[in-house]
Sequence to fold (639 residues):
Amino acid sequence: MGDIIQRVAGKGGNAYLDKLLQDMSRGTARGSVAGLSRLTANYKAASVGLNLRVALQQPTSYARALAVMDARYLFDPRVMRRGGWEKALRYAPIARWKDWGNFEINQGRQFQNILFNTDSAMERARNASMKLAGTMDSATWGRIWNACELEVADTRPRLTRGERGVL
Amino acid sequence: MAQRFTDVVDQTQVVDNVLGRSQFMRSSDNLAKMASSYMGEPTQSYNLLYRSYRDAIQEQDPAKRGQAIKRFGRTAAALTFSMFLNAVAQSLWDAVRDDKDRDEKYWERVLRHILPNFAQNANPLGMVPYFRDILSAVQGYDVARMDMEAVTGLITAWQNMQKALDGEGRYTVAGASINLAAELARILGIPAATVKRDLEAIARSIGVETENWYFQYQIERALNSVGYSGNRTEFYNIAFGALADGDLETYQLITADLMEQGVKGSTIENAMRQRLEAAQNEDQDFSMSQEASDLIGYRAQYAPETEAESGGFSVDDLPPAQRQSYAALRAQRYREIADDVEASRGFASLPQEVKDRALDSTERLAEATALSSATDGAQPVTTQWMLWATGGDDYGVDEAEAVLFKTAYDMAESDKDEGGKTIPGSKKENTLEIAGVLLPNLTDRELEYLMANYWAPEDEELKALKENRFVE
Fold:
């Protein structure tokens, strides 16, 4: 197995996979977030939270989807319909993950807090400050969901709306 | 459906999970964490581009390869477009935060920011950890340690607070308190500093867009100390904005407040003149109302800057209200006299240097009489020619005529004989000759009065007048 990995991924392949599996099993954000790391994490949270410049940039990631999706779906006026994000939350785990409040600032919430709502007051305040960027993201992802719906309806006409796995 | 959505999101959107981050970003090392901060988007973009590139070069089937190359081109175009949109979005807010030029409108500032932001977004070096820090250093920014940044920010805010309480430093007590609270919050991960900065930026932008200079002044004044010389530029810029817009009432309000805080009136006027000159150098069409330029004692063409009175009393010793009244009177007097001087028949033909001298005399006369009026005579006019210039009503002589006659007198030189000796009476003769050009319509009575200032009058009445006027 190790040989195969090394052949495909090169010398560091095994180390990469080991680290990836370790990180997946125990996470990267918590445990190590103390002392100076906590200061770094807090600094980043304070820089991103309620930052209108950051919030304004969130929807521009929509254009990156052009790399993997046709412009006629992404720029169809019907993508502006409401409800896309709610459907994404319901059917796509990745959307739920995003909704739980994970941002790319090493500040991810612990599952314990997500499941039992046990965030401290300070954590609640920090999470609240991230809502603005989160809302912009949700709006963007909702549009992507709608664009995907248009694409699937167009490219797989034999599927029926409401069918399992289709919507 | 969900599968397609997940596929699109996985490939093109940033999600903060283990699989969404590179090995380097997942490092528990604190320095690596700092270096890889905000690298989600660049990493995503790199992966997207790299995968499509890999597909294009590894594909062996010619037909599929053509499609893979197309996909690579499409990915590159999508990323470029996304970076451009991102630059526009950044610029929308950068323009709000940008307070460099208060005359520039919001959309002008937005347009100015788009290209540099796009260049920064598209620079591949900016997407590589450590390299982007080097790039920042090259661009003149500090590469700060995020963990220590918050701590040093808090310490600095505390020191500024102490200075403010002592009446020193760049911030007012209110400004220093807000900064301290914001830095404390930053340590805890609460974005109070960002909110504070953006609220300030929004308020400032509202002031700029509505051209409400007093509102802009009040914002700066609430947060920044006038006593700190490093802040003065901003206050002067705002005052100049009001002046250039012809909003003299606001200009007076601002300068009165600055003087209340200990800034000298002459320093403010000098700063305004410098800004006017700079604006004119930058844009030759830049103009300011005559009233405004008179108020700051600016002489566009002629008179050299007058020196502040040396020794003894200075106009800057006046209380702010009186100082302003003085400036307004000086501007008014100067304009009245200068307009008449410049309108005189021979003035235009005078050499530049003589014009300068004439208008300089005008300025000094305006200063002296304005000071006397502003102080209700407590600082009376004492210079002989000025006393004579202001007292000629009964003889039909006004100040402008007195200034022009003085100019003629100053211009005229005595003639010399062959032995180099001064020919008696020649200065007088030459003066009258020049005065004849400058003031061709003088009556004998007017001329006699003007001459009496420089030579002993024959007329008994004038003789008595002269003795009485200068004996006091």
In short: DSSP finds ten helices and no strands in chain A.
